[in-house]
Amino acid sequence: MNTSDEAIALLRDAWPMIVEECRACLGGELHYQAMIYHCLRSSGGPRGQIGMNVKQWITNVASEVFRKADLRKHVDYRGGFEPIPDIVLFKPTVGADWRRRNPEHTMREMLVAIEVKASERHLNRLGRAEICRDIEKLAAHKEEIIARGSDMTPVMLVVDTAPDEEERMTEWALQESRERASEMGVLWLYLGRDRVEKPSSWG
What we know:
With about 200 residues, the protein is α/β, with parallel strands linked by helices. It has helices at about 5-25, 30-40, 65-70, 105-110, 130-145, 170-185; strands at about 50, 85-90, 110-120, 155-160, 185-190, 195. It has a six-stranded mixed beta sheet, sandwiched between helices. Helix 5 links the parallel strand 3 and strand 4 (about 155-160).
């Protein structure tokens, strides 16, 4: 797995298993992240190229989204921003090491960043605002990678399988989120109880 296209091909190959596994259990976002990791590994993803909750402290912030996030902090804690993508697919040259101590290296070695959102909201529902914030952070993260001479593909993956319809996304929220992802250049994947949304090229 050396390119973003190859990393997305791995995600495409793992997608049927991701759908089956995530529909089989009810849990929180961390649980679904672990299931997606398992599916990527089971589909041939190298263990030394797939990280979870990868912390990357960015000091010279390039994107407006991250600059504004930094300014919202107390003045004593400003000076950077730390995105923590849920799942990252890396180039082999990451060397199976994506620890927090070397963020510039791990950023340059990224191929794909995946954010996962799940509809486990007791007495509440998964909404547009929460998902669109993650979409905007993914797009900003890509901007930071480009500013460092590299590139990656951002992916928003929604697991909307709550049994109670009141906890699942509304059609309006789903449409708004899908359109926002398209506007921001973020790959959109949706996994519901009775339907999925994926790129048409995946068949």
